[in-house]
Amino acid sequence: MAIRQYRYLHFDVFTDRRFGGNQLAIFPEAAGLPDRTMQLIAREMNFAETTFVTAASSPDTDVRMRIFTPAVEMPMAGHPVIGSAFALGRDGRIGAGRNRWVFGLNIGPCR
Q1: From CA 99, how far away is CA 60, in angstroms rounded?
Q2: Are the beta carbons of 71 and 41 closer than 8 angstroms?
Q3: Mind telling me the catalytic residues?
Q4: I need a labelling partner for 45 at 20 to 30 A (CA). Which of 23, 34, 51, 110 fits?
Q5: What is the pLDDT of residues 28-45, one digit of tens each?
């Protein structure tokens, strides 16, 4: 059986220096990961939150993002939304010059 590999980004959010702020892991291409695996990955990362980005699940969003702590999935949290937006922009996923990007979260669209 082949094991699929998933790339992730590691950011320190709300700081201007390394090893400060809140750690955040972002999986920018998490399609195919089952819920249980996302939770296990978040527990293994052991950061306050880990986000998983997949294709949009509704036409009014750009992507679907799920947020996990080591223990539970969260409906929404500010630090991972802001950190993931920054990381996806730096990674080229959010194109330069975009003035609107909408995450589909467990609470609905987040602009």
Answers
A1: 15
A2: no
A3: 49
A4: 110
A5: 999 999 999 999 999 999
